[in-house]
Amino acid sequence: MRIPTLILTIFFSLTLFAQKRNHDVVYLKNGSILRGTVVLIDPGKFIKLKTPDRNVWVFEQEKIDSIVQTSKVQIPQKNGYFNLTEMGVLAGNSANYKKNPFTLMNISSWKFENGFSTGIGVGVEFFNETYLPVVADFRYFIRKAGAMPFVSLQGGYSIPLGGTYTLLNLYYLSSSIYRPTPQPTNIDVSARGGWLVNPAIGIQTPLNENLALTFSAGYRMMRQRYGKNDTYKLDVDYNRLSLKVGLLFK
Predict the structure, then answer these.
(1) Residues 195-216: pLDDT tens digits?
(2) Fold that domain 2-68 belongs to in CATH
(3) What's the whole-number mean pLDDT along residues 134-154?
(4) In the chain, where does the domain assigned CATH 2.30.30.100 lie?
(5) Strand 46-50 relative to strand 24-28: parallel, antiparallel, unpaired?
(6) Alpha carbon of 5 to those of 11, 61, 142, 184, 234: distances in Å?
(7) Are 240 and 217 in contact (CB under 8 A)?
(8) How many CA atoms lie within 13 A of 89 on its CB side?
(9) How far apart are CA 139 and CA 151, in angstroms?
(10) Residues 91, 240: Cα–Cα separation, whole Å
């Protein structure tokens, strides 16, 4: 399948691009000059410089006179509260009635020192009806600075915001026994909502200390229930490839 291959290519290309560095020059106030790659800057505190012989030097900011940079510096990401707004599609195959439903979600979360984060998300999605998904969001960031690969897991419930589903039905349910009807009938059933789970992998690329872009690809497993009074129930599974981009604020 071409889409998963493309996703993996983008994911690893972004990771390798984030690791690419050129040489920088650090001028110290004591007259020393060092050349290498600035791998980390903590504004107002210190910088880390990796020299060609693979030694890593840490200099306090107050001891540095100037820096001539040509490399893309890893910006450390703050721990604590962050807000992430994601949008994307839930892609299905060509046989699906809704091939690429739109999804939009806002997540309020807290990132811990160990790289884990946990939060709550609320969004809107468009299938045959409009749904309000409410999820718990868990993430683990593999790195603490620069481009940060992560794995995530969302789980929760989709609340229907009204709407009905018309079903061409060959049977009706009476006293838990299926009996054939003489002619096919159309049955209008109401949406009841359903549970969902969405594991994913992705990468977060910082724009500055408080702003970052995210990209993720995962697999959404979701079951929506429909019903008519208490006499008819129908479960519809929507298993989709989730592709999302997001903007993260801290």
Answers:
(1) 999 999 999 988 777 888 999 9
(2) SH3 type barrels. (2.30.30)
(3) 91
(4) 2-68
(5) unpaired
(6) 10, 44, 22, 43, 35
(7) no
(8) 8
(9) 6
(10) 5
Instruction: Dig out the tokens for 7 from the structure.
Output: 């996703």
Longest Cα–Cα distance in the chain: 96
**51: CB partners within 8 A, 6+ apart:** 34, 35, 36, 57
Q: What is the pLDDT of residues 160-194, one digit of tens each?
A: 887 666 655 544 444 444 455 455 566 677 888 89
Mean pLDDT of 223-249: 84
Indicate the pTM of the whole model.
Answer: 0.63
Secondary structure string (H, E, C) spanning 137-188: EEEEECCCECCEEEEEEEEEEEEECCCEEEEEEEEEEECCEEEEEEEEEEEE
The per-residue pLDDT for 17 is 47
Cβ contact 78:110 at 8 Å: no
Please name the CATH architecture into which domain 80-249 falls.
Beta Barrel (2.40)
**CATH 2.40.160.20 location in the chain:** 80-249
Beta-carbon contacts of 143 under 8 Å, excluding residues fewer than 6 positions away, are: 149
Residues 6+ apart with CB under 8 A from 53: none
Q: What is the dihedral of CA 198, 218, 215, 138, to 10 degrees?
A: 30
The amino acid at residue 36 is: G
b/e map 157-196, b = 16+ CB within 10 Å: ebebeeeebebebeeeeeeeeeeeeeeeeeeebebebbeb
Task: Kindly report, residue by residue over 23-74, the tens digit of the pLDDT.
Answer: 788 888 888 888 888 878 777 788 888 887 888 888 888 888 888 766 555 5
Mean pLDDT of 143-168: 81
Percent of all residues in the chain with a pLDDT value above 90, rounded to a whole number: 30
